[in-house]
What we know:
The complex is a heterodimer.
Chain A: E1 3-8, H1 18-22, E2 28-33, E3 40-44, H2 53-57, E4 63-68
Antiparallel strand pairs in A: 1-4, 2-3
Chain B: H1 25-38, E1 47-51, H2 59-63, E2 67-70, H3 76-86, E3 91-97, H4 98-104, H5 106-115, E4 120-125, E5 128-129, E6 135-136, H6 160-165, E7 171-176, H7 180-191, E8 199-204, H8 208-212, H9 219-229, E9 230-232, H10 233-237, H11 241-246, E10 248-255, H12 261-275
Parallel strand pairs in B: 1-2, 1-3, 3-4, 4-8, 7-8, 9-10
Antiparallel strand pairs in B: 5-6, 7-10
Helix pairs in contact in B: 1-7, 4-5
Amino acid sequence: MVRYKVFINKKLCKGCGICIEICPRNALRFNGINPETGYRNPEQAGECIGCRQCMWYCPDQAIVVVGER
Amino acid sequence: MAEHFGLKYLRREVLPTAFCPGCYNGILMNALFQAFMELGIEDLKRFVFVSGIGCSSWIPSPFIKADSLHTLHGRAIPVATGVKLANPELNVIVIGGDGDLASIGGNHLLHAARRNMDLLVIMINNQVYGMTRGQAAPTTPHGMITPTTPYGNPERPMDVASIIAGTNANYVARWCISQYIPLKNSIKDALSRYSRGFRFLEVYAPCVTYVVRREGKTPGEKLKELMKKCVRIKTWREMSPEEREKHVATGVFKAEDKPGFIETYKKYIAQALGEK
């Protein structure tokens, strides 16, 4: 079975929240404020099914979804 | 750690982008880069990006790792025409907004399409003049409240994709920013199957700050709403006039493969030289 992981590039993320709202499984949530940029950053909090919508709809090229066996 | 597919086409030293948080311009960048990646384009040496003035004209100029020209307001297409005529080997892509290409450069757009000039023009329709704080543009919907139309916009918007479909352009399509996969496939088509003549893509993407936030929505909520609001042309034509106003027709308006201006022009040059 393939397990999917969501990586967030904290330098590029602007905390717009599109990924959290677009995720069909609600697998992402906000996790505090990044002191370097001042924006809220998301983190993975649930099971990812690998649809990659967060990666496509991220306007800042900050999300990568990787499948691992 | 794995890397985003778009980062190899971007200048890393200028990131993060200058756009507002959640700006849909970034989603178009993703679609463009994924189209490049799927076509097997590793570097953008054979590409020139031309843009005018406006938020969406910022996409190529500092961020994409390719040669780019940031020109006068609305005059991106004449400069791109010059670039293409000077070196027809180059792939010239014009990226601009509705205020840049449709209102101020409207006549240039119309006549480049009439000539069937070998360019790919991507127009991001954000419905307002976003860079100057959201005044009403020719593409603002009827009744929308903006700083210049405080009681609602009395005018009706211009349907740019239909206008260009009425000219000699080869490929005309309109996609909403929420239709990521068709948008990406359309960019791929415009670069591979229909690689000559005038190709026009209108991308419907409301301004996050001056349209979406004024409606009291977050960028994610609006994206989900757009998924229901944007329908294919066939479905849209069957709707009643009241329903049509609430929806956006998307899809491919025109797809032909006629010879472009460069090809026709070269033929005339050969003819003129042969007769001497």
